């Protein structure tokens, strides 16, 4: 059905919203001027848009029972076979539930998308299937991915395999839990503030946030284009290398990837760290919220690179402390305008639009706004307030400051191969009780990103490697490298992994 011309009353209502003063004669005049544009919209209805390919047959799968879903980490289970040969042959892969898999329900952790079934495969899904991988299902995630805890998911809290009372971290909590529990070999996560690295760190998995623009997000639901990343979560550095090699590289539907530079990630596994220069960043430690034992163990883990032939020096990047403030300015208004008010995809994007996702989210969001999590409500209300009151000033300033933040890290990387620090400054926290206060609920969702979110803004690749336990829970060491130099991170991660079992540290 083609769109209809607005009525006189609708035109007057819109004019009033924008503070214009029109009378009925003015509105009628504008209505007549709109007829030409409406004819273009009518023609658009007659044209067929391109669809992302769906190359492999599949059954729709099923929602697993509680008995089959011990950690509440699955949203949906499937068994979609790929080509049967290639670098991922024999590997089972969980897909974060903000990424489209054709014919399989997608909820993105939120009741407002419940019932949506995509008709397309995301580019990364097609690449995994082409490489011989098997899609084992959709991993549960946080409500619209706006939480770094694991308690905002509409299907219930995602539980840490190391202690069911504790958070997996988020928003890719299901992906990390399934890998840590060895229910799948590999998983895909998304990272806008730490959402690959946080759950990987807290669950004892390996998680790599690639350089911004290396892995396409085509067919995934974004939060904010300038900080959206997709990457691998695995049980070993070797599997990180293999999965990254498959999903990385330019995609004509995602203009960010035009700058992508792919390396030999599998070949990097054997390079070691001899001769590398590693910068231990002072500002990654000693946050007001830092756990002293975590700091000490991560320092000790970084120091072990010296015995492997690397040089380790302590450096200072004072602007790291401003990274979370810059990230806040970028993502709050960005998410409110693009993800929520922009109905999942925003506008003026020159890449691929998953139009069915936009329509489903618009219907769900507008009809059930009370059903989103408290973190999403906070983002929308504060983002809209800042937009109305300060007219995009702070978002724009934060976007400009990202250049200086990136340079601050690059100045260190001019002299070093990578930067090292704790991924999260403390081990996994307890899942808040269902009747907790809103303040506790929100704090538990957002209080751990001091070291992770700055690198979403700067775009540097960041790799969390398990390096020990505190109170029986995993902790992680984060390695940060040059843009499009994931190979060096993989070399260092593999060298550290081969020292010995991190679980005994």
TrEMBL record:
InterPro entries per UniProt: Amidase, Amidase_CS, Amidase_dom, AS_sf
Domain of life: Bacteria
Signal peptide segment: none
Domain Amidase stretches: 73-489
GO molecular function list: catalytic activity
Xref: PANTHER family: AMIDASE (PTHR11895:SF170), TRANSAMIDASE (PTHR11895)
NCBIfam families assigned: PRK07235.1
Functional description taken from the UniProt entry: Hydrolyzes indole-3-acetamide (IAM) into indole-3-acetic acid (IAA).
Name of the protein: Indoleacetamide hydrolase
């Amino acid at each position: 059905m083609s769109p209809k011309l607005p009525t006189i009353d609708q035109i007057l209502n819109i004019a009033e919203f924008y503070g214009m003063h029109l009378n009925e004669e003015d509105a009628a005049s504008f209505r007549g001027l709109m007829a030409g544009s409406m004819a273009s919209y009518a023609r658009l209805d007659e044209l067929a848009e391109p669809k992302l390919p769906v190359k492999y047959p599949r059954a729709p799968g099923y929602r697993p029972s509680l008995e089959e879903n011990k950690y509440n980490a699955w949203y949906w289970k499937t068994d979609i076979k790929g080509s049967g040969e290639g670098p991922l042959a024999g590997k089972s892969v969980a897909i974060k539930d903000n990424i489209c898999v054709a014919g399989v329900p997608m909820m993105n952790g939120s009741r407002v998308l419940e019932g949506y079934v995509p008709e397309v495969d995301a580019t990364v899904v097609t690449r995994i299937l082409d490489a011989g991988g098997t899609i084992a299902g959709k991993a549960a995630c946080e409500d619209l991915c706006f939480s770094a805890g694991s308690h905002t998911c509409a299907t219930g809290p995602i539980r840490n395999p190391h202690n069911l009372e504790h958070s997996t971290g988020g928003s890719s909590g299901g992906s990390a839990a399934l890998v840590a529990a060895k229910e799948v070999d590999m998983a895909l996560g998304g990272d806008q503030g730490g959402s690959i690295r946080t759950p990987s760190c807290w669950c004892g998995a390996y998680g790599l946030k690639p350089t911004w623009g290396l892995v396409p997000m085509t067919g995934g639901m974004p939060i904010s284009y300038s900080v959206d990343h997709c990457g691998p979560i695995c049980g070993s550095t070797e599997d990180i290398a293999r999965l990254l090699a498959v999903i990385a590289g330019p995609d004509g539907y995602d203009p960010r990837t035009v700058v992508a530079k792919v390396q030999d990630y599998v070949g990097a596994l054997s390079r070691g760290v001899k001769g590398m220069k590693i910068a231990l960043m002072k500002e990654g430690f000693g946050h007001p919220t830092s756990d002293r034992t975590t700091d000490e163990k991560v320092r000790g883990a970084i120091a072990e690179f010296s015995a492997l032939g690397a040089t380790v020096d302590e450096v200072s990047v004072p602007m790291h402390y401003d990274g979370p403030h810059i990230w806040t300015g970028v993502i709050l208004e960005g998410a409110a305008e693009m993800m929520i008010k922009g109905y999942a995809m925003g506008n003026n994007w020159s890449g691929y639009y998953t139009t069915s996702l936009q329509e489903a989210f618009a219907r769900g969001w507008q009809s059930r706004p009370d059903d989103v999590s408290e973190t999403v409500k906070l983002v929308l209300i504060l983002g809209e307030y800042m937009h109305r009151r300060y007219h995009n000033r702070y978002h724009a300033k934060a976007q400009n400051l990202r250049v200086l933040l990136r340079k601050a890290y690059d100045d260190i990387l001019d002299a070093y191969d990578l930067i090292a620090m704790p991924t999260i400054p403390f081990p996994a926290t307890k899942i808040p009780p269902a009747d907790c206060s809103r303040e506790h609920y929100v704090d538990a969702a957002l209080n751990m990103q001091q070291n992770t979110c700055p690198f979403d803004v700067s775009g540097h690749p960041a790799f969390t490697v398990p390096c020990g336990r505190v109170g029986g829970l995993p902790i992680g060491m984060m390695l940060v490298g040059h843009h499009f130099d994931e190979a060096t991170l993989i070399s260092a991660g593999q060298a550290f992994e081969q020292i010995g079992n991190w679980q005994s540290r």
